[in-house]
Amino acid sequence: MTEAHNTLPVLYSLRHCPYAMRARIAIFKSKQPVLLREIKLSNKPPEMLALSSKGTVPLLVISTSEVIVESLDIMLYILSANDPHDLLEKQQPQALTDMLLFIKRFDTQFSAALDTYKCAKRYRESNLMACRQACEIYIQELEQQLSKHQFLMSEKESLVDIALMPFIRQFSKVERQWYQQSPYPLVRAWLTQYLQSRMFTKVMAQYPIWVECHQAIIFGDL
């Protein structure tokens, strides 16, 4: 690893975690590399736990005194430094406020409903349909947004799209057959364009577990 690489931020990540996924997407979109350390929940690196007692991913280590533990904060930090696609819509001050409110509601309300839905499917509970319908309230809102423009907030991709996509992906996987036939063609098309993109292939690439190899892995759109 070169001396320049020693100065890169370090991202502790878990491949399929939606929070870690959206942090990696923002890093990819920002075209700023980081050192990626893939973890296992059953064997978290002591170095990571020393930096954050939460022990959750994503975790972005900028320096020994600067650590970011929330996925949305990581996205904002990395895109504030470099945002070639203008995902933060910096020319419109109110836009970021609106986007953060939109994301916060999905992070709290939709995420909770999605967790209940996934559990109902996993444990074959009798209230599966009711749990799905609780999620559909939010999916219907996205369908309506996409009927107005190509992306969730406007005709251009924004922070909202990349923040919500990993969670809508999870929703789509709970009952695959139902989802494919569901009355949300615009949501399906929006999600599909991400899942089939070069970006998603790169973001979801499988890397060695860091505690097993201590290999320096440079991650980003290089």
What features would you describe in this structure?
It is a single chain. By secondary structure, the protein is an alpha+beta fold. The protein has two domains: about 100 residues, 3-Layer(aba) Sandwich (Glutaredoxin); about 100 residues, Glutathione S-transferase Yfyf (Class Pi), Chain A, domain 2. The chain is built from eleven helices and five strands, in the order αβαβαββααααααααβ. Strand 1, helix 2 and strand 2 form a beta-alpha-beta unit. Helix 2 packs antiparallel against helix 7, helix 5 runs antiparallel to helix 6 and helix 5 packs parallel to helix 7. The two termini are about 15 Å apart. The mean pLDDT is about 95.
In short:
By secondary structure, the protein is of the alpha+beta class. It has helices spanning 3-6, 18-30, 46-51, 71-81, 93-122, 128-148, 159-174, 176-181, 185-195, 198-203, 210-213; strands spanning 10-13, 34-38, 59-63, 66-68, 217-219.
